[in-house]
Amino acid sequence: MSTDLSIDADWSAQYIDGEWVAAGDDETIAVEDPSTREAVAEVPSATEGDVDDAYEAAAAAQEEWAETPPAQRSAVVQQFLQALREHDEDVVDLLAHEAGGSAIMGETSIQIASDHAGEAATLPRRMKGEHAESNIPGKENVVERGPKGVVTVISPWNFPLNLSARAVLPAIAAGNGVVLKPSTNSPITGGLLFAKLFEETDLPEGVLNVVTGRGSEIGDRVAGHPESDVVSFTGSTSVGKHVAGLAGENLAVPAMELGGNNAFVVTDDADLDRAVDAATFGSFVHQGQVCISVNRHVVHEDVYDEYVEKLTERAEALAVGSAHEPDTVVGPIIDESQRDEMLEYVERTVDAGATLETGGETADLDGVDDSLVVRPTVLSGVTNDMAAACNEHFGPIAPVIPFSDVDEAVAIANDTEYGLSGAVHAGDLAVAKEIAGRMETGNVHINDQPINDEAHVPFSGVGASGVGEYNSDAFLREITETKWISVQHDPREYPI
Description:
alpha/beta; 6-stranded mixed β-sheet; 22 strands
């Protein structure tokens, strides 16, 4: 029988040691559809005892899993990829119901998650050691690489599928056990979905465990569990600092992708139509709820007015509405608190002297009280210290800041504690590369926009945007450890 991955399936159990553990008399958490504001599913609210059971299972199963031949571990990840592709329509629908994701967001999530699965499947055969020359005569040095043990994955609500996949799949491929704690806003697509898909594979029981619950109740136990060897977290900088601190108490390796305040620099000789195309996607896809979206448009004063006009026209032309409508581009914000915060940033920015070119309000949806859909918003006359520019607004908001020369553009781009991603549009590639080289950020994309993720390319942030690296060999180093084994073949002479 095919696995039921519809929103109407039973999601009221968590996955521990290969078993679905029902909530029983414990409290459940309602999953709300951001488009309709209706509860569409119930998931368990895990206890600290559930968390302990999950880590015990992961630790016990990991030892045998680590000894599994690399070809078998690779095959399991390939089976996961096949299952994901077979259920792609259901998964896109789940993302619409749970994360407010449009069809564009859902399909993109499938594509990126598939890319991460394909790359993860190659990792078991790339866990190679090395020989190192010795300073001591007759000694042979061998460096082996093996799994860390148990990897904790705490995933976010904005792109729950692929941001869980990029940590869970490599960790399993490398021979680790995993405890996955998804966001309370997206416990299905960020967590329970993985358990159901892996049930269609040959993954041994206990290697993957999924606990759902409120961070305020079980978050500290998950982040600071003594069985955890690596803590992968994607989310806000404030929470990430707390999570990293708890991980550090157990000397677990923190891999943190945190907040961003990404600059999109446009010079006076840039192709404006091309820049606006990129900016429209980079600011408004998935309602701007992307850590690497365009947070600030930094535009040369000579083309500033034209850029603002073109961007405003594009923003006003975007289809706005329910994530369940196939033509929708800009759907709902995840919840009221996120919506209200971003609208407050807009209001404060206008009060500080900026001009609201378009948007700055919610859009009504038929039959929905208190809509979460925020219209695409463009603000002109913005300075870097205004609320919509100096904060990570995480919404469909485009503050446009003028600059006069390259030095000022770089200064504006770097005037933030964050350093996650960015982009530069320029006709002169030498100038673009100069600006990109001077931007203090982990990723920069020339004549593109900052939302890029390719599973075989290292991804990291600097400053308040995190520690550690993701993707391919970069993340493989985070979830594995080396062991130095030396063999003294010839008798050694000692000084005493």
